[in-house]
Amino acid sequence: MTANKVLIIDYGSQVTQLIARRVREAGVYSEILPAWATAAEIKGRRPGAVILSGGPSSVVDPGAPAFNEAILELGVPVLGICYGLQLLAHALGGVLATAEDREYGPAQLEITGESPLFEGLPKSSRVWMSHGDKVDVLPSCFKVLAGTKNLKAAAAADETRRIYGVQFHPEVHHTEIGEQLIKNFLRLAGLKPDWNMASFVERSLAEIKKRTGGGKVLCALSGGVDSTVTAALLARAVGPDLYCVFVDNGLLRQGEVEEVRDKIAAHCRLNLTVVDAADLFLARLAGVEEPEAKRKIIGHTFIEVFEKEAAKLGRVDFLAQGTLYPDVIESVSPHGPSAVIKSHHNVGGLPEKMNLALIEPLRELFKDEVRVLGAELGLPEEFIWRQPFPGPGLAIRIIGAVDAERLKILREADVIVQQEIRAAGWSNKIWQGFALLLPLKTVGVMGDGRTYENVAALRAVTSVDAMTADWARLPYELLEAISRRIINEVSGVNRVVYDISSKPPSTIEWE
Ligand code: XMP
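# xanthosine-5'-monophosphate complex -> structure
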């Protein structure tokens, strides 16, 4: 008997979780296993269908993640995406080649074959490609279902065994037919749409209870949506065994400590301790310029502070954090071999040896899903719609070394950004808007005198899930108001610039 779920095998794509997310959006539960999972692990999950992710390797490279025959022995429908298709083709006797034109970006897909995978889809649509290799000769059991200008077999299938492969990425927004294609795949696999946030809560609570088994849990709370939702979930699971700690690391925004403390007291019945560790963090960061070094120092110091707090409570075994999927995927590859982009403080910045075991119930979710979860848990809107703020705080928005004086300048500039964005009615139209302080002085003229002061930068982006982002087209009047106020009111800044980069190739934060 198979279970009503999809097993996703991760070959190291940056967007494997997007596949999981699309499957969840279609109402079906999914689990991810790494490429090197054993046959027993794969079979033990009893999936009703399997999806093979993309990945950065070439199938024929030495050390590239290999295909596990156990996947086909399950006898359930399989969908290979990009690297997944190439693996399937290679395993079934096809021939791969390096594409003459590596394809990154949009392509026009023409559907040429009949298949339940393409049921109800337009014959021609825009899809997203990202590959260097291609299938040159298909295995004899495969028939071509669709192609593009550069690619004869952009989709192929062995319909009798229900094995499908697509070279494009149905999981990304830019693939117009992506959502429907995944729904079609789930339907042809006979999977029922019975997953929702309420069932996620139920399963999470059961998992947390089983794991903690009556032990005490310390929760790192920052007042942001991720950690507040984590705390609310844990409070339901372990009740009085939950101890929330809010660390004032000296890298927070103006008035943030008081604001968070008051809001938690007003809206959530959480046992909260505020620890003032600002001096410790600033001393450790003194003179440090390199972004990864800053992130690691902050991550390690956080854990040190938590362990000290834990020791005061007697025996504490667990540390709960609001780590999300984009934090994980950019820091380490949890399930497979994808590239490290930056060490998010609560993931890659952790010391190797820790006395507390980690509980990260949101680890596979995206921010917008966490917001839905927050609403499901009954958190007030003001928590759910708080702008993201990175764990390493203002330290990664002060480019170069961090000190009290530069923190003061940035805090003052940032307050103005927040006030003006709110006043202009732009808070809900953007993902994030904030100020940065650059390690750069320029000449200006103020009154009749020459100034030689710092440059502040303004970053505002739109995004759905922080995996990709675009610079926000803020109105000139708003940009002008922010710039004028910062230069007039913040002592130490005489120039403001606006960041017009998208992610990728840039990132949202600068470090
Ligand atoms: P990037 O800069 O990687 O940021 O494009 C994506 C989103 O994540 C936030 N961010 C962090 N959040 N710990 C966090 O909890 C971190 O270390 C961290 N670094 C970046 C960032 O603000 C953006 O919303």
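# post-check
The chain has 15 helices and 18 strands.
The longest strand covers residues 95-111.
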